[in-house]
Description:
Elements: H1 9-55, H2 63-76, E1 84-86, H3 88-99, E2 101-104, E3 107-111, E4 117-122, H4 127-131, E5 138-142, E6 145-146, H5 147-150, H6 152-160, E7 167-174, E8 177-184, E9 186-189, E10 193-198, E11 202-207, H7 214-227, E12 232-236, H8 245-252, E13 259-266, E14 271-277, E15 285-290, H9 297-309, E16 312-315, E17 323-329, E18 335-345, E19 360-361, H10 372-385
Parallel strand pairs: 11-12, 12-15, 15-16, 16-19
Antiparallel strand pairs: 1-18, 2-9, 3-4, 4-5, 5-6, 5-7, 7-8, 10-11, 13-14, 13-18, 17-18
Amino acid sequence: xxxxxxxxxxxVITLIIxxxxxxxxxxxxxxxxxxxxxxxxxxxxxxxxxxxxKFFYKDxxxxxxxxxxxxxxxxxxxxxxxxxxxxxxSTNQNSESQMGVHTGIGISVTLADDGxxxxxxxxxxxxxSKAGLKVGDIIVCVNGNDVAKTxxxxxxMAIQDGAPDSELTLGIKRGEVTSDFTLKREKIEIIxxxxxxxxxxxxxxxxxxxxxxxxxxxxxxxxxxxxxxAKGIIFDLRxxxxxxxxxxxxxxxxxxxxxxxxxxxxxxxxxxxxxxxxAEETDISMVILINENSASGAELFSASLRDFKxxxxxxxxxxxxxxxxxxxKLSDGSTIVLTVARYKTTKSECYNGIGLAPDYEVKDxxxxxxxxxxxxxxxxxxxxxx
Length: 386
């Protein structure tokens, strides 16, 4: 009979120690390899920082600017014209713009021949109108600084820059009298939709961009002009660079039949519906004006109406931006904007890099005072409603 072999306690302990050591060594090796490979990727940045700290001749180096430049350069290395880094200030400004508001005093200005600032427009119910500023007033001082000495651009920036409720003092020349006006900056709604009735039957509605306020403004303007007798609509999207996809969807929803209208196609091939319409649908004839500066959301708006309502496009071939960006927040509140998907309507192909071809091509003739593109649109829409 064979005797069972017994393993001594010392051997067992030795095997356990060897096993633990091998596990630790393997883990250590893997971690170090990952760290080394990652370190190699950023080694040059570390070397550059060391040389700057040791040899750069100025002591007052703005570290925040260095970081902004480094992150901006990293995103710039993607060589994608739509991806970008936004520092904290740019992030806040862009966020306000998307919400459809900006902080200011509600004036439009131009440079005067003598270096001062002409007030060309004063918005209703704005801080400027409340303070009594008028079209034709001349801004000669901003917070006590002479505009002609400070410079036009710097003076305009001084007027614009500031938080809501911050005070601003302007030296205003009206006729031969110069007086100080103190105003408080406010958040002012950005008007992106304007319209008028042409020939008592056609609504000409211009949309300059798509932000959070645009759908409401469009709905109100359409109702106003239809109540005034409009039987057809010319949507003017010339020079509209796009905006929020969510805004485009809300603008399109009451115009289109029920169903999935547009989808995004991501890196891994997944598709996501980005524009959907309910059963409510506007029954009115429409045409759309586009040009070479109609891009992104403006093209998506146009392609959707073309594909689902057979709406004619008039003007010139559009820009050709059929890719979508998403915004990602970094730890300090700054953001990076990255192109994440292509998009298209569910009835046609992506137009990125190609643009939308007009059904009626009409070039913009800068040499004449006549808007030939609008004239053509008016002729086409009248043929539909008569």
